Amino acid sequence: MSHDAMMHAEDFRAGAALGVDHRKVGMWLFIASEVMFFGGLLATYLHYKYILGFPEASGLNIVQVGINTTILLTSSLTVVLALSSIRAGKGGQLSIFLLLTIALGLAFLSGQVLEFSHLYGEGVTLTSSVFGSSFFTLTGFHGLHVVAGVIWAAIVLVRGLRGAFTAERNMGVEVFGLYWHFVDIVWIMLFTLIYLIP
Amino acid sequence: MQGQPVQPARRWPLYAGVFLVLILMTVLEVVIAGGVLAPPALNLVLLGISITKAGLVAAFYMHLRGESRMYTAIFVLPVLLLLAFAILSVLI
User: Fold this and answer.
1) Residue A30 at interface with chain B, using a CB cutoff of 8 Å
2) Which of A58, A73, A103, A121 is deepest in the core (most CB within 10 A)?
């Protein structure tokens, strides 16, 4: 083993001794940066909502978005069950739960497309008003994160089918799960702050 | 290493229970927003429910509960910074 490789191995042993994994630390740091990213977008939305009142927001369909929220919450359950399955050595269940996650992610995105089409039909567009700009930017970026999550879930599914994960080696599933749950948490906050609070 | 459950199958009822609570809280939010309360009480209650929901997902589904506190610190620090900026922007 080369000197550099030995140093890397030492670093990983040090991480393990602290009870942390470098890959998980990396994902948590990425999530921390995402908190600031969505925080900035949300602050912009709330700032203009406070100043302008956003009367257009009264046209948002809370029940439809509530159903979409439930779909995303359900996908968080399927992701955590996927991880639990592979940790129990059940590769077949991992595939089933990942497939369900992909289906639920696509269902959420379909709901968002319907909502956006409805708003565009009513004349609320990305450039029609400050509400349109801040609303579509915020929820659109969240939707893009869901798209990335669905693609990532498909990659994890294919790797799982090829036998990349076992009861002992499943960090790829866990790190994907952290990302997906974070996207869910962002939506939990957006649902309340955009759709429910007047 | 911390965070590696010994018997993952035993966690299924816990995950299902958390899911049920999340759904019930979502329904509660929609009902409350429908006119049960008026601002500012409405805003505070809705914010409280959504923060609780986010906390449940982080604690149980992201396994922050029971894992190294370093992960929690990495996650909570930017949230606190964000709150500090929000409070400062209101005060200044």
Assistant:
1) no
2) A73
